[in-house]
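quick one, 224 residues, struct below
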Amino acid sequence: MSIVDWPEGERPREKLLLRGAAALSDAELLAIFLRTGMKGKSAVDLARELLARYGSLTRLFAAGREDFCAVKGMGDAKFAQLQAVLEMSRRALQEELRCGQTLNSPHLVRDYLKLLLSGRQQEVFIVMFLDTQHRVIASEELFQGTLSQTSVYPREVLRRALAHNAAAVILAHNHPSGLAEPSEADQLLTSALKQALALVDVRVLDHFIVAGGQTLSFAETGRL
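---
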């Protein structure tokens, strides 16, 4: 049955307008993005198949172009639309972080970092540079690969902090394994960066680990 034949209150678009986006399931939200299905499948059916293939929205968003376009009914146009939506979301969150104090909006920091790091297939190290009011000046991806004290260079983080005239930083990296628990290397790296940045009066406010849909805060768990 086509979506147009569904009761009006059950159609994703009408349901969103009536009850708000939060009332929709992941598949219904994705169906609105897809707009149309294909022969024998509604947009909701297609959305459910995509979620079953990737396991979650997070993994779907992280899919590469070739893998995404290999799904029947998808293609370059849909991939480009999805990337545009994700980038607009990142930029909107970044604008909010630049306008307000990050410590007063921890949920925004988490949401922003999830959009940047969830689903990445290799470890990525991000540094958010903040001014004296704890507003975000810039966010930079500085290192990729297996992270350790030797692969993440404190001098480079220090150099970028001075270049931005930052008063504080928030560190973040992902765990592709899906486990958010910090390793011993994570702890040693955090301590090394904290000591190096303290030499030029730049505070490390937090270090987040993003793993799947979870975020772990060093500050909140007493590890900083």
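The mean pLDDT is 84.
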